[in-house]
Amino acid sequence: CVTLDVQAACRDTAVTQELLKEGFHRDLLVKVELGEDAGGCAVAARTRLPPGVYVDPYELATLQQHNLTKAVLSPDVIDVEAPEYLARDLLLLLFLEPDPRCSRCFRAAVPVHARYHRPAEGTEEALVVLESPEVLLCCCHSRLSAECWQPAEVDTPCSSDSTGPCQWHSTKHRAAYEESMLRVPVGLRQHSSLVCALTLLTTGLCSGLILTAACKYGHFF
């Protein structure tokens, strides 16, 4: 009976994430509907980004300067030029803003970029799976139900602007969509010889044109 009472009291928190736009440069939109009122609490979504995608820390810093996005990346030093097979996972803590149309709803978006993948055989695209994020709450002036919310190990302040310590809490949630998939175009292995030959030919042709123009119009002393 106690278990049933606790389950009834802990209303489900729903999470939805969407990949907006097309191509290699997308926007990750995260929407959360809490199961209980969280007035005065900071709400965040913690998600692990696989090696196939990344958040540009320089772009993120610019967005935060204009108060368009608030997030924390770990690690904070990222090689944005690395291909998927040389990259590693990233941990993104995205601070959510209240949705004026819903008292228990929060949302935020952050630009994400796909990395180049190895050429594949028999397929022209690779799938990058984004798991459903974890919902976190930090309440400095109110208490959360101990049955519904558990302390989470998150070494991050309650907002991207503050530096003081903060105790975050997490809860189980239902994902409106269990996972999002990003389809990334990749080259075909059987075309590698042709691509190398055309690249070498184009490079040689352009180098010859530059050399010819330099000899014809250049002034040498």
Automatic annotation (TrEMBL):
The lineage of its organism: Eukaryota, Metazoa, Chordata, Craniata, Vertebrata. It comes from the Eukaryota. The keyword Transferase does not apply. Pathway: Glycolipid biosynthesis; glycosylphosphatidylinositol-anchor biosynthesis. It is found in: Endoplasmic reticulum membrane. Keywords: Endoplasmic reticulum, Glycoprotein, GPI-anchor biosynthesis, Membrane, Transmembrane, Transmembrane helix. Belongs to the PIGX family. This is Phosphatidylinositol-glycan biosynthesis class X protein. GO terms for cellular component: endoplasmic reticulum membrane. Stabilizing subunit of the glycosylphosphatidylinositol-mannosyltransferase I complex which catalyzes the transfer of the first mannose, via an alpha-1,4 bond from a dolichol-phosphate-mannose (Dol-P-Man) to the glucosaminyl acyl phosphatidylinositol (GlcN-(acyl)PI) intermediate to generate alpha-D-Man-(1->4)-alpha-D-GlcN-(1->6)-(1-radyl,2-acyl-sn-glycero-3-phospho)-2-acyl-inositol and participates in the sixth step of the glycosylphosphatidylinositol-anchor biosynthesis. Probably acts by stabilizing the mannosyltransferase PIGM. The keyword Cytoplasm does not apply.
